[in-house]
Design goal:
Length: 574
């Protein structure tokens, strides 16, 4: 206390004593109260709790008489409600120091209250007892709870599941169990979690003694995992597996449930030894597969939504809990499908025909293509042999070209049916992908779903008349080199007619590589030395060009000239 307050206090001391006398009811009552007050003082040792009487209120302080030779002062903020301070009221204070620099004794009401509160707590409670108090503030490691004295509630003991922010408990009343009392340090540690666990354990035992398979129970969603949800049944958590949530398809439990949702579940299984309970949500309603055959008879047409696509087909939902598979082979009569996504996308509404039902396995086979007429049932009538068609070259292979006759229907133009006279090594020599061409239907195989097409059949076979009339053995003709092989060169003689200039007919000198003598697109004069209508071959010669007779006998004798039959056959095969 500063000097000005002390001076003011001493000046007014006489007046204060008069006011006190008036309040106390005269000199006799004053002496009687003083005697009582002094008798109650145990000692004046530092740290002792004394009884004192409020003499006056000066500024932010209260003057206290403890029966000592000097009075003391206590700040008003140490009182719970400074507005209710009453002159003459008896209070307990702690003696902190005797006569400080100002000549007053140093007192504390707050510390005295804490000591008395601690004594009351120690007298009333022991370790293991239950107490209730209000959370006042957050400190390092936990919370302070006021129950007359501050006690410590560690963060780990607040709840079974660690709370996100323990500050949310400030201002709330909490009930806890005393874990430890340290009298020397005047410290008490309590646990709210312990009480919760004890309560849950009690409810768990009650629950396990009551529940039975088939019961409907209410619970609260406490946790959600990929495989299911944990439901608090009141003391015990049961597992609601994802497969028991819905008769329909769900990808994750969060599609149906959220934490803290209240749900009704069916008890599916109980293991009392392991304290595990299996729960079901879908079992509250009837299994839609029970009357599947009556609702979706084989052969019936129904509409559904594509809900999943796999490499082998698409799953179509007919109703909640009922899904059927449209295999990739049942998607189109005519299209060659590499993946179901070429035909459908998730969310598409499609019409299907029920093919087969396996009630035990809960499987339905469906078909999209059977909602339409199979075009192959009328293909023979629509495109009989000899029919001329126009189509687009859809694809090329080593053995031929696929021609799209109509949407979903392809015909094969084999390499052997592309030219009467030309040796075709690859379809690309005659047609290109995307070309629009005219062809003729050679045959239709409805069972194998094949249509054979011909290109060369659009014109007459030149070997029947044109070639025998136009070319004679010994003739000198002009030709253009179109292909080189290791055994010779092919020359186009006009109108797609080809002849073979065998390597042995290049020169009287030995030739090992035709490319050393001629090049592609070279135009040459050659002599016709062989014509074989049955084999569709024309033999040519450069070295016999100067020979006026120049012709080999036909057929060639075994002892003269090169035998190109086998070699030309090899060329055709190549």
């Amino acid at each position: 206390m500063d000097r000005d307050i002390l001076k003011e206090y001493k000046v007014n001391l006489a007046d204060i004593e008069k006011e006190v006398d008036a309040i106390m009811g005269g000199e006799d009552n004053k002496k009687k109260m003083e005697s009582t007050c002094y008798d109650s003082i145990q000692n004046f040792e530092i740290g002792s709790v004394l009884k004192g009487r409020i003499l006056s209120s000066i500024g932010d302080n209260v003057v206290i008489d403890c029966g000592y030779k000097s009075e003391g002062m206590i700040p008003k903020f140490e009182f719970d409600d400074p507005s209710e301070i009453e002159i003459g009221e008896e209070i307990e204070v702690l003696l902190e120091a005797v006569e400080d620099d100002s000549g007053l004794i140093k007192l504390s009401k707050r510390k005295a209250d804490r000591i008395r509160g601690w004594e009351r707590v120690i007298a009333k409670y022991k370790e293991g007892d239950i107490i209730t108090g209000r959370v006042t503030r957050k400190i390092k490691g936990g919370l302070l709870v006021d129950m007359g004295v501050p006690i410590f509630l560690p963060a780990s003991q607040i709840d079974v599941k660690p709370p996100g922010d323990i500050a949310q408990y400030i201002g709330q009343e909490v009930t806890c169990r005393i874990l430890k009392i340290d009298e020397a340090r005047q410290n008490i540690v309590v646990s709210r979690r312990k009480l919760i666990e004890e309560e849950r354990d009690k409810k768990k035992k009650e629950l396990l003694s009551e529940i039975e398979v088939g019961q409907i129970r209410k619970g609260v969603v406490k946790n959600i995992a990929d495989f299911g949800a944990f439901i608090d049944l009141g003391g015990l958590d049961g597992l609601l597996h994802i497969t028991d949530m819905s008769w329909g398809r769900i990808s994750h439990p969060s599609e149906l449930l959220a934490i803290d949702d209240e749900v009704e579940v069916t008890i599916l299984g109980i293991d009392k030894e392991k304290e595990k309970v299996a729960l079901g949500l879908k079992q509250k309603s009837e299994n839609p597969w029970l009357h599947i055959e009556e609702k979706y008879p084989v052969g019936s047409r129904v509409k559904g939504q594509v809900v999943n696509i796999m490499s082998y087909g698409a799953f179509v939902k007919l109703e909640t809990g009922i899904e059927g598979l449209v295999h990739i082979s049942e998607m189109s009569w005519t299209r060659r499908i590499n993946h179901p996504s070429e035909m459908v996308a998730i969310g598409d509404m499609v019409e299907v025909v029920v093919l087969k039902i396996d009630k035990e396995k809960e499987e339905i086979s469906l078909s999209m293509k059977q909602t339409e007429v199979n075009p192959w049932t009328v293909i023979e009538e629509k495109y009989p042999a000899g029919t001329k068609i126009k189509g687009r070259v859809r694809n090329l292979t080593n053995y031929g070209a696929f021609i799209e006759i109509e949407e979903g229907v392809d015909g094969l133009l084999h390499i052997s049916d592309m030219s009467w006279a030309k040796k075709v090594g690859h379809p690309s020599e005659i047609v290109k992908k995307g070309d629009k061409i005219e062809a003729i239907v050679l045959s239709v195989d409805r069972e194998k779903k094949r249509v054979a097409l011909g290109l060369k059949q659009l014109s007459d076979d030149p070997w029947t008349k044109e070639i025998p009339d136009k070319f004679k053995v010994g003739d000198v003709v002009k030709g253009k080199v179109t292909k080189l092989t290791n055994f010779g060169a092919f020359l186009e003689l006009g109108k797609g007619i080809e002849g073979l200039l065998h390597i042995s007919e290049f020169s009287n000198e030995k030739v090992t590589n035709p490319a050393d003598v001629v090049n592609i697109d070279d135009e040459l004069e050659v002599r016709v030395i062989r014509i074989e209508p049955d084999a569709r071959k024309i033999g040519l010669s450069l070295k016999k060009l100067s020979d006026s007779s120049g012709a080999e006998s036909q057929p060639q004798s075994s002892g003269e000239g090169p035998d190109t039959s086998e070699k030309e056959s090899s060329a055709a095969d190549a």
